[in-house]
Every structure is written in structure tokens, then in C-alpha cells.
Amino acid sequence: FCGEAPGADEEIRGEPFVGAAGQLLTKMIGAMGLKREQVYIGNILAWRPQMEGRRSGSSVQQTGNRPPTEEEMRFGLPYLRAQVEVVRPKVIVALGSTAAEGLLGFGSFKSLGSIRGQWHEFEGTPLMVTYHPSYLLRNQSNKSKRVVWEDLLQVMERVGLPINERQRNY
Ligand code: URA
Fold first, then answer.
1. Cα of 168 to ligand 1 centre, how many Å?
2. Which residue has the higher pLDDT, 57 or 72?
3. How far is the CA of 17 from the centre of ligand 1 (A)?
4. Three-state secondary structure of 60-93
5. Segment 159-168, tens digit of pLDDT
6. C-alpha span between 89 and 75 (Å, rounded)
7. How far apart are CA 36 and CA 16, in angstroms?
8. Are 4 and 25 a contacting pair, CB within 8 Å?
């Protein structure tokens, strides 16, 4: 799974997807019948993009998050490529538009809705694009959840994970 960049919680813990969006991602992985330890989770950029901050003592307290710029994504790409070479995933799931842009090319698509749910490729590895879990946190309709789930069902089929009736009808 590839996300955007660490946020505040991830910066503190030094681990991707451990905040609210990460907890939802863990549930999504669980719904696929997997444990977090069975998948690799990374980000387009391994660092939290810097924002204007407020000085507190000797450090600067950064508030808020922003997506990485095109330049930052280009900077992060060799590191991401190295992770893919080591992990050799059967498939990659791009979570949200930043991940999709980083993996498919900056400005390579108009809207996430037009490319999600279809198989793409990142340097020879099958790539599924879906919405970011933070989108689901903002948009909790059953319809949005089902759309993401349908993308994950395609991933399960592609990697040969068993799918039971309950999972099929979530
Ligand atoms: N959102 C992301 O895209 N990545 C993280 O690691 C955490 C939140």
C-alpha cells in the first residue's frame, strides 16, 4: 500500500499510517483477511512535508499537513523504487491522488474517479488505484466504502486471496 506522506502521528512514531487514517487502513487490511504485518506500507514521500511553524522553545511546532510538491515527489521516487525492489510486491495499491500521481506521473490523469478501480502498472508491478482512507473518514457513506471495497476485492482476486460470501457482499 502506498500513501502520500507521513502526518504528525507518523512523524512522532516514525512509522507510516499510524494515525486516524492508518487505523482505518488497518481495518481495511483486516477486512481483506490479512494482518498489517503481511503487507508493506509506504508513502510517496518518507518525510512530512514542511509547513510554516510556530516556534516553541528551541523547536518549531508544525501544524497541519500538505501534499508533497512535484519536486518533493521526484525526490522521494528513488527511495520508493528501492522499497519496491526489496519488497517485490505482487501488487501495489495507490491510496489517493498523490500516491497515484507519484506512481503514474505528475499530471497524468484528471480525477481519481476516472482511474480508480482499474489496473495500471508501476515499472512492471500491477497497480490498483483507490481512494485514500482519509477520504473515507471525511465521507462515510456506504457508497464510498463500497467503491473502495470493490477496488480491494480486485486486489484480493489478483493475488489469489480467498473471498467468502460475506466479504463479497460487504
Ligand atoms: N496519510 C498518508 O498518506 N500516509 C501516512 O503515512 C499517514 C497518513
1. 27
2. 72
3. 5
4. EEECCCCCCCHHHHHHHHHHHHHHHHHHCCCCEE
5. 999 999 999 9
6. 22
7. 11
8. no
Which phi and psi (to 5°) does residue 94 adopt?
Answer: -85, 125
Q: Is the CB of 4 under 6 A from ligand 1?
A: yes
d(CA 115, CA 128): 9
Among 1, 2, 9, 10, the mutation site with the greatest number of ligand 1 atoms within 8 A of its Cβ is 10
Query: Does pTM top 0.85 for this prediction?
Result: yes
Spatial distance between the Cα atoms of 16 and 97, rounded to a whole number of angstroms: 17
**74-93 pLDDT, tens digit each:** 999 999 999 999 999 999 99
Cβ(102) – ligand 1 distance below 6 Å: no
For position 64, what pLDDT does the model report?
83
Distance 22 CA to ligand 1 centre (A): 7
Mean predicted lDDT score pLDDT of the chain:
95
